[in-house]
Amino acid sequence: MDKAWFTAEELKNKGELGSSPQGINKRAREKNWLWQRRYGKQGVTKEYHISSLPLSTQNELYPQQYPLAAEEPAAYTVSHHDDPIKRLQGYLAGMKPDEYAVLLGFLAEKGAAGLLDLISKANR
Questions:
Q1: Cα dihedral angle (11, 40, 42, 19), rounded to 10 degrees?
Q2: In 3-state terms, what secondary structure has residue 89?
Q3: CB burial string 46-81: b at 16+ within 10 A, e below
Q4: Which Pfam families match (predicted)?
Q5: So where are the chain's domains?
Q6: Looking at the DSSP assignment, which residues form a beta bridge with residue 47?
Q7: How far apart are CA 82 and CA 32, in angstroms?
Q8: DSSP classification of residue 62
Q9: pLDDT tens-digit profile of 10-67?
Q10: What CATH number has the domain spanning 5-78?
Q11: Residue 90 vs residues 6, 8, 11, 68: alpha-carbon distances, Å
Q12: Most buried residue, 14, 67, 84, 92, by most Cβ within 10 Å?
């Protein structure tokens, strides 16, 4: 396989995905697709890993490597998204530079205990 990461623009009309990059990005957020930043001429965009995409889309991109299954997978499957460290790393990687700077400043000033206290207060 030559390529494993795709932008919403590249995924338009692939498999069951629609023609709108905004709709693809919305679906990616709702389904918690694995993503990373791609820096390009027009700024920063997200690109999604092929393993997160629907089977029909995987099949259209690489038919030999991702043949369509006879049936859909079970509703609950264990994935890398269940690992809290991986989820945190993905979230941090997706932060804007100014958001990341604010987080680091907060942690430098108040530490992890301060962050946990803030989270605890917000969940009450």
A1: 0
A2: helix
A3: bbbebebbbeebbbbbeeeebeeeeeeeeeeeeeee
A4: HTH_Tnp_Mu_1 (PF02316)
A5: 5-78
A6: 7, 36
A7: 11
A8: -
A9: 999 998 999 999 999 999 999 999 999 988 788 889 999 998 999 888 888 887 765 5
A10: 1.10.10.10
A11: 16, 18, 21, 28
A12: 14
